[in-house]
Amino acid sequence: MKIKVSYDTFALARVFTISRGSRSEAKVLSVRITDGEHSGWGECVPYARYGETLKSVADQIGGLNMPLDRTALQVALPAGAARNAVDCALWDLEAKKVDARVWELAGLPEPEPEITAFTLSLDTPEKMRAQAAENAHRPLLKTKLGGGADDVSRIQAVRAGAPDARIIVDANEGWTPELYVQLAPVLLGLGVEMVEQPLPAGQDDALLDMKRVLPVCADESCHDRASLAALHGKYDVVNIKLDKTGGLTEALALREAAVNAGFGVMVGCMVGSSLAMAPAVLVAQGALYTDLDGPLLLAEDRVPPLTYDPRGVHPAQHVLWG
Asked: Which of 96, 234, 241, 244 is catalytic?
């Protein structure tokens, strides 16, 4: 069994901005594992917020003692981008070896398309209204917010541009407790359904003492099953991302544990290609919110890409993954 890591860059269709900065391209790591006859692959997006770089993640993968299986991998690497790419590649490899789909190997029902959010980049209210109008045909919009009074103007602009769309918002840790109290009822009145990670992870105990009139989703505060215990009483929904859980194996386990603990489930993504989204589509089945729009933000993608249409994001063709 051999493992190979490569660096891939995908240009974005437009500059993408959140409260922490902007980017014009998606830089990812691709992992291919071969057994001499079959090969499986996966993709991860190292994230600086979690202390990851392309090199640090590549070094983690390069330090693995091969061969190994998914069970051994959970011990060999911590939750994070490196384990994600390897775990997904191992799932893909096994599926190809036994000529089955990953969902069958995992004991899941055959997946169906899931309506996905489309993310509007953080900008001025005027430009965000234009983004919203351009995407008004989409059923669910996710709006990036930056903190401050302008966030109300941004949502008012998005609502004006897309009057019929459902809206969720992502503060990316950019709010304070006082700002939540001020903004939540206003956003609720504008039809916003949920806010993602309003307070910084590690500083979210303030949510325990708040009346959460606008439901709150944990993103940076939720990584894997070990995160759940600290989220009770603070959050209503948890955002499962494979680059945080460290792959499909833990993501499926986290989804089950979160549901059993009474949390709503959102399945999200970093900005990556269709290869990164393909395993997440399996986790997203029946989720309260699906946010797997990474490929829609790209100017280029894997071949063949995932299919996106009015029914949502479709499961991957087997030639792509799984």
From this structure: 241
Q: Dihedrals φ, ψ of 274, to 5°?
A: -60, -30
**144 catalytic per annotation:** yes
Token reading at 168: 């969720």
List, as one string, the DSSP characters of 153-208: HHHHHHHHH-TTSEEEEE-TT---HHHHHHHHHHHHHTTEEEEE--S-TTS-GGGG
The confidence score (pLDDT) of residue 14 equals 87
Provide the pairing of β-strand 140-144 with 166-170: parallel
Residue 211 has pLDDT above 80, yes or no: yes
The pLDDT, as a whole number, for residue 21 is 75
Query: Which whole-number Å values give the CA distances from 215 to 24, 25, 91, 168, 196, in the listed order?
Result: 31, 32, 34, 10, 9
Residue 19 has pLDDT above 90, yes or no: no
Identify the active-site residue in 96, 142, 144, 234: 144
* Beta-bridge partner residues of 163: none
- What average pLDDT is seen over the chain? 96
CB atoms within 10 A of CB 163: 11
- Contact at 8 Å (CB) between 262 and 33? no
Cα 243 to Cα 224: distance, rounded to the nearest angstrom: 10
Q: Which residue has the tokens 């729009």?
A: 293
Are residues 146 and 174 in contact, defined by beta-carbon separation less than 8 angstroms?
A: yes
d(CA 285, CA 113): 8
pLDDT digits (tens, 9 = 90+) for 256-270: 999 999 999 999 999
Asked about 211 being catalytic, the answer comes back as no
